[in-house]
Structure formats: C-alpha cells, structure tokens
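for the writeup, i need someone to sanity check this before i put it in the appendix. the sequnce is what the collaborator sent (i think, or maybe the updated version? ugh). structure was predicted straight from it, no edits. if anything looks off just tell me and ill rerun, i have time this weekend
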Amino acid sequence: MTVPMPASGGAGRPRWLFVPAVLAVLFLAVPLLGIVARVPWADVPALLTTRSSLDALGLSLLTCLVATAISLALGLPLALVLARADGRLAGLVRTLVTIPMVLPPVVAGLALLITFGRRGVLGAPLAVLGIEVGFSTVAVVMAQVFVAMPFLVTAVEGALRATGTGVEGAAATLGASPTYTLRRVTLPLLAPSIAAGGALTFARALGEFGATITFAGSLQGVTRTLPLEIYLLRELDTDAALALALVLIVVAGLTVAATGWLSRRTVRRSAP
C-alpha cells in the first residue's frame, strides 16, 4: 500500500504563521509602494536632469564604483585569510570587521573624522604635508568603504568556509602551488559569491548617508551624494526627492535580485 506524502510546502508549518508573515511583508512593502504611488511620473525626466540631481547621481555612481573596487582589492584577501584562520586573533579581526556593520553610520563618520580629519590623529600630520582628506571626494569614498567592505568580507568568508578545504587540498596534493590553487581553483569556485558580495557592497555604498555627511559634508559636485541630495530636497522639493528616491529603490531592487540569483547559483554549484 502506498502511503500518501504530505505536500512539502505545508509540512510542519502551522497555518497561523502566515498571518504575521503577511503583516511583515506588508509592513516592508507598503512604504516602498507609497513612494512609487506618489512619484510624479510625468515630471520624472525633468526632475532627474536638473544640475543638482545629475551632480549627485554622477558623484554617487563614481564613488560607489571606486569604493567597490577598493573593497574587492582589500576585502577579498582579508576574507580568504579569515576563512582559513582560527584562534583568538582571527576572532578579534572578525569582530573588528563586523563592528562597522552594526555601528550607527554617524558614529562611523565620527570615527573617520577624528582619525583623518584636519585635526585628527592621522589627519593632522597629513594636513602639514598639504593633504586634506576630510570634506573631500576622497572622504566620501573612505566613508563608503568603511561601512560597505564588511559585507563583502563576511559574504566571501562564509561562502569559502561552506565549501570546505577538499578541493584545495586535492590541488595541493597534485603539486599545485598556493598561488596557482588560489587563481585556478579557489577564485573560480567563489566567483558567484564574490559577485554577490560586490553587488551588496555597491548597494550599501550607494545608500550610505550618515558616515558621509559627518566625514565629508555636503558640497554639491564634491561630496553631496544621492542620499544627501534626497535629504536636502525632502522639504524644499518633495517631487524631486521622490524621483531620486525611486532611482535608489530601482538600483537596490536590481542589486537584491542579482544577489539572490548569484546565491542560488552558488548553492547549485556546491550541491553534490
């Protein structure tokens, strides 16, 4: 006799869970839909092509691309080292990497200002040499890297830990050098995770506000990124603020969709 199997979608899942689940979805979705509903669609092209909007959009894209590149150049090696490291020192480094993810952005900006500002610990000696970091475009990039790079490090480290050391060990057994194994085995294996982490880093940098305004200020064409422009326009020109907010929502949605697709691809590749 064949015993009917319960549908996998409802196995062990009380129906009452769907009530708070739907409420959670509505709580997250309704404010976003509210922006979409209030956007003056007929005026969006004109609102997005004003001088200040174009400056903010161009500056945001430029600094976010640079911040993502720096995060990859520095964060990827850190993630590779941490994934194969244990002990107290590795635990301390992981804690330091995680702290910027949970700090209020304004505190992150204050930490950067105290360190690299004109009177900061490192900023004062740099100022003597004629190098001004605070309230410059460089400060925007530094603020974005500070708050966004940890997302890349944690994503790649977690993916590498999940893959184990079997493939790398087999390559070493066959006589491959550590550099060759990294280039031909580890990095190709982690490619989807690196891409997903890079996308999250870009999205986090694009939405950065608190650390940027604290460390870099808000000077049009120099440090005023898209979130800062939206903040300034929210009372002066609500329609323009909504149009720029729509840009951020679209970019964030595309980034999340790409990250999800890359994550599913990683799971399929790691499945036996």
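Residues 65-270 form a domain with the MetI-like fold fold (CATH 1.10.3720.10). The two ends are 32 Å apart (CA to CA).
thx in advance!!
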